Amino acid sequence: MKSIIGITGGMGSGKTIVSNMFFNLGVPIIDSDLISKNLILPGSSSIKVIKKRFGKSFFNNLGFLKTKKLRKKIFEEKKERNWINNLLHPLIYKKMKDLICSVSSSYVLLVIPLLIENKLEKFLDWVITVDCTEDEQIKRIKMRDKIKEEEARIILLSQSSRDERLKKSNDIIKNHDNSNLETEVFNLHKKYIGK
Questions:
Q1: Where is the domain boundary, 70, 102, 134?
Q2: pTM of this prediction exceeds 0.90
Q3: Which of 13, 18, 53, 132 could be 9's S-S partner, Cβ–Cβ 3.0 to 4.6 Å?
Q4: What is the Cα–Cα distance from 143 to 149, expressed in whole angstroms?
């Protein structure tokens, strides 16, 4: 029976880099963010509900959701964040479950940024947290998303604390710099294959 391993970490911690390293080792990756992006494509049933809630100003001329605008709103307004989570999370979880069933390998890696916030660790065999300092996260978020430091801090405040994530982790990958990252990932991969 395959193990189901969740990988999480705060925004800008390096989850994508780490999950790509596991993928390069042949590990099946199921990424909740990619599933979410597919759920909000023009014409989907969920996008129609989102448009009704937030209005046309949240969409471009081609019908695509202005995700940066929506993200800003949901990180500033908890009520709206809860609404969008209640809409999308059940759909994301169902798709993840379907994909897990279709995979044949010794383990599968689920990339779930809000794993701890949504108390999903109880459904997993193992939890990995990709960790780095808050200052490093802010630097990476600002660079990647081209936003101001204040906006990056608001996003981080909406997530579980670093300490909370670390307490609920079975393994921690330190990503303060990338010097030992591949070695850490390879060693964990060997460990999980041996389970």
A1: 102
A2: no
A3: 13
A4: 10
